[in-house]
Specification:
Elements lengths: L26 H21 L3 E13 L2 E11 L6 H21 L5 H6 L3 H13 L4 E2 L8 E2 H14 L1 H14 L1 E3 H8 L12
Parallel strand pairs: 3-4
Antiparallel strand pairs: 1-2, 1-5
């Protein structure tokens, strides 16, 4: 089954094409890895009180025998959402994907490096900067946090919520797209109300 995401979903938050990395795994393992990545985002976001609209893996076959796999988790943000929670959910995708590799006996340094998701880090830095919070890579800015500190926050949550992440990842791998309500139902987490009062 293939899905053709809207062209804007192939761009990062700055309008640049999302990075394309060569997978070092087969199709099925890569697809499941992407599902774990997006499940990490969705589950941590929900645990921090964000409204999760949907989470999905994108699968395209641009030419016979060549697959492009990715994913996107859509959140509805509102004023008052926890900024450091947003940063932690951004870090959680790569951490969940690496833990998947380790859990399934697939981990190698090269495969772990493919999970880096620098675009997730850059998105978190930019979103927090818009709200006046300082997130930096490689150092702790005055009054802010480093990406390493945020990854530490996310790593603890990923460990604590691994059962929920695993459940969501396998369901996403099977169904491609899950709504926030479906994720809440299968995990027992609460999906915060849609900002503005809409359901």
């Amino acid at each position: 089954m293939t899905t053709a995401p809207a062209p804007e979903l192939l761009l990062d938050h700055r309008g640049n094409p999302l990075p394309v990395t060569r997978s070092l795994l087969g199709y099925e393992e890569t697809r499941l890895g992407n599902a774990f990545h997006e499940a990490g985002h969705a589950v941590l976001a929900m645990s921090y009180g964000f409204h999760v609209v949907s989470s999905e893996i994108d699968v395209r076959e641009p030419e016979p025998g060549r697959w492009d796999l990715g994913g996107v988790t859509m959140l509805a943000l509102k004023n008052g959402d926890p900024l450091w929670g947003f940063a932690a959910q951004a870090a959680a995708g790569a951490l969940a994907e690496v833990r998947y590799l380790m859990t399934f006996g697939l981990w190698t340094p090269e495969r772990a490096a493919v999970c880096a998701a620098v675009h997730d880090r850059e998105h978190a830095i930019d979103v927090l900067a818009q709200q006046g919070a300082r997130l930096a890579c490689g150092h702790v800015p005055a009054g802010g946090k480093s990406w390493g500190q945020v990854r530490g926050m996310a790593l603890r949550k990923v460990g604590h919520l691994w059962r929920e992440i695993r459940t969501v990842a396998h369901a996403m791998n099977e169904h491609t797209t899950l709504t926030g309500e479906q994720i809440a139902a299968m995990t027992g987490l609460t999906n915060a109300p849609m900002p503005g009062g809409a359901a």
